[in-house]
Design a protein that fits this description.
The protein is an alpha/beta fold and 157 residues long. 41% of the residues lie in helices and 25% in strands. The protein has a single domain, classed as 3-Layer(aba) Sandwich (Rossmann fold).
Length: 157
């Protein structure tokens, strides 16, 4: 008996993660998959891993509700969960493995640090360590270029 495919979408405060939810829902319709949204609360090493993080948990619940709204708008039901971990990247990789995820869809903003495009530590970790497919949804650059007047320069790789 074949099990239903699963798509995991990490949700953050970055608007690109909500775009990723929409992409995941479109993909889910094509593949007849279920979509899981996860928000990782990173816990400082100075605190116990199960520390009460009320403010962060409330913020995470709001983000998951936003993801559920975006999914409903795309005609899809998703389930969301909060996870507390030391490192978001490791938590996402572990969650993908534990939930037997087929595809991870991650939204990233467009960041330039010292002239080069950066994906960030979490996405970098997931791309290197996830055993499933990873789709990256990056925000469009055009709006950013117009705002900062950076119409020149081309990214490498």
């Amino acid at each position: 008996m074949a099990s239903q495919h699963t798509i995991l979408v990490p949700v953050t405060h970055n608007p690109a993660s909500i775009e990723a939810v929409t992409v995941a829902c479109q993909l889910a319709k094509q593949r007849k998959s279920k979509v899981l949204a996860v928000h990782v609360i990173e816990v400082l090493r100075s605190l116990p891993l199960n520390a009460e993080m009320e403010v962060e948990a409330r913020r995470g619940e709001q983000l998951l509700r936003k993801a559920e709204d975006a999914a409903a708008h795309a005609g899809q039901h998703i389930s969301g969960q909060l996870v507390q971990a030391r490192e978001a990247g490791q938590a996402i990789v572990d969650e993908a493995r534990d939930q037997n995820v087929d595809v991870l869809v991650m939204g990233i903003g467009y960041k330039r640090l010292i002239g080069a495009f950066q994906v960030g530590r979490t996405v970098d970790f997931v791309l290197k360590n996830a055993s499933c497919q990873v789709w990256v949804v990056r925000q469009a650059v055009s709006a950013i270029n117009h705002t900062h007047g950076e119409g020149h320069g081309h990214g490498h790789g």
